[in-house]
Amino acid sequence: MIPLPLLESLGSEQKDALIRELYALVCRQAARIVELEAEVQALQGQVQALRAQLAKDSRTSSKPPSSDGLKKRPRPQSERGPSGRCPGGQKGHRGQTLEQTDRPDRIIYHRPECCLSCGQSLVGAPVINECRRQVFDLPPQALEVTEHRVQVVCCRHCQRCNAGAFPPGVERPVQYGERLKALAVYLKDYQLLPYERQRELFEDIFGHRLSVASLLKAEQACAAELTEPLAAIHQQLVDAPVVGFDETGVRVEGKLQWWHTARTEQLTAYQVHAKRGAEALDEIGILPSYRGVAVHDGLSSYFGYQGCAHALCNAHHLRELRFIQEQYGQAWAGELRVCLRLAHRLKQGRGPPLTDTLKARIEQWYDQILAAGEAELPADPPCPPGHRGRRRQHPTRNRHPRLCRYKAETLRFLYDEQVPFDNNGAERDLRMIKTQQKVSGTFRRWNGAQRFARIRSYISTARKQGQRVLEVLRSVFIGRLWMPGTELVAE
User: Residue range 152-165: average pLDDT?
Assistant: First the structure.
């Protein structure tokens, strides 16, 4: 502060110069304050975004439960809510109990040798009663070697030598049979057992250690024979009224690739591709000609196919709304979760009949919640200094417009009985792919990933249709392939 006597001693010109200098200093300080406030707001936005990223877990996002680590809650909160039923089998449930069979494989008689009272021999004494007990166990396992001998017979009439013929499939001096090959593919592509552990299993159980080359050849031969069944699965998916679509990232040859699935309750088709979006979906070839209802998680590439109707996965919506409610305190998100869960319960028949009037009320409630939430949305975070490109929106402003825009797709499950509430079926079908990646870490070769996709599509479809996987795989090696939609004829 300038002393008052000094100010009084200054002339008018000096005072004007001093005032201009002070004014310029105040302007610079005000500009700096505004700049610092903007920087603080930007940093606060970044801190909030980082906190939100750390707060995401399997309850509030699509992250798997295994990613929760040690912070995993002891009692995961399911979106389904309590069912009100006691644990275990419900009333009317048919239990599974080990029961005696009328045709045992062998019978061992245990006859007393002498009388417990007088000690006399019981040899030749009549049997007046029997008590039965049965033990179900595995027989000793060993490989069975079948030798085929082609005999040469000379005709007694013309003296010509005639040779017999080996049966189909017997092509080499030494080879493995169809049951062993089917079991090898079953263990590798269904039970996800690595090659080395397969070799250990065969040695421990059968006393025979196979080579990795033999296991690999069995898998290659199986995948090569599946062209016709996979084409049938593809066509049946195109003709299905409702199909779920999903994708997940996998590592193939150390690079990020995408594993796509299209599925129904009876069919599964897998395809691995370098791309995630429309290029991959066009090459897979189901969506371009599909005319039913495609259920998915809202990836923009799916909406590019206008020939079909769309339905969004509400399990994703519930997790995202939980995150918005807990992390940003948005009341509308919690209320919309209640609305969607109530609609789901009514769709399941857990409440009054879902009439057209009730559907209209649910839809009206949906609109009211989003309309009220519009005023509750926070402002977008300020751009940091030097920011280029599109301005970043607040997470709540990303979700709210999408729920408004795709209301019909979100609530389609209310109006179409065949459309599910969520797309969890597709996520379940992809779960084993992630398990395989955890077992092996990566697919070492692109061809190996393609083989696994082909065989797994065939196996998953057979399993959904109630077929025994091992017998279905055996049908491939004996040349009588099981086709989707048919019954496997046992030999």
Answer: 90
